[in-house]
Amino acid sequence: MQEKKICIIGGGNMGEALAGGIISSGLAQAENIIIHDIRRERLAYFRDTYHVGASDDITGAIETSDIVILAVKPQNMEEVLKKMADSVAARLVISIAAGITLGLIEEHLGGKTRAIRVMPNTPALIGEGAAALAGGKYATDSDIATARRIFDSVGITVVVKEELIDAVTGLSGSGPAYGFIIIDALAQAGVSQGLEAETALKLAAQTMLGAAKLCLKGDKTPAQLTDMVTSPGGTTIEGIKALRAGKIGETLASAVEAATTKSKELGRK
């Protein structure tokens, strides 16, 4: 990877998260990364902040690179693919656009494009992302390994079949927003019980962080962890009763289903 040159098309939040993660992890040097964006102020920001290359010429940016990461909005993807079709050649192409299929990318870029579709999420901004990857027909095992190294630099990765990427979008792609809502609700509930707002938010966020890390240790299921903190006749069981009465499980399942359905709709447009 130290020898690879990486072009990131799109200088938004995810483009920045990837650039920052790749550099801070030591996966690639700043001088081997080039950002393409149509906004001159963003290009200047990347040059000054990350000391990477920056260009508003998409063809030139791609032609100097080995790997191209498409970090543009789904509604802009077809226009970008048309612009890059003549210059992408044998480069590895990685897309993080929701709803954009590997088939569409391969069709627009022609030939035997080595394409990988990735669904990351916003905690990549702080190196705590979760990303699922699916390889296209011409992507090799080595290509998948390369993509995993890139996204492991800003969190964790899993490999899935492309037909499951919409479900990933509904779960972890949109999931941070569900977490923010839960943390905010817990904090507000703490305030209603007399805590200061700042204290309540800090306790709620750290509690969810700790719970998540216990789950990721992998030696106990969420149900087993719940049992660890639940005593017969104690405070936690009363809280759990209230959660179940409010059908929190069904509500979260509905949220994931709705977001998954929307992702499928984006892919059909």
Describe this structure in words.
- This protein is an alpha/beta fold and 269 residues long.
- It folds into two domains: 6-165, NAD(P)-binding Rossmann-like Domain (Rossmann fold), CATH 3.40.50; 175-268, Orthogonal Bundle (ProC C-terminal domain-like fold), CATH 1.10.3730.
- Helices cover 54% and strands 14% of the residues.
- The protein has twelve helices and eight strands.
- It has helices at residues 13-24, 40-50, 58-63, 77-84, 102-109, 141-152, 165-173, 175-192, 197-217, 222-228, 235-245, 248-268, and strands at 6-9, 33-36, 53-55, 67-70, 92-95, 114-119, 129-135, 155-159.
- An eight-stranded mixed beta sheet has the order 3-2-1-4-5-6-7-8, sandwiched between helices.
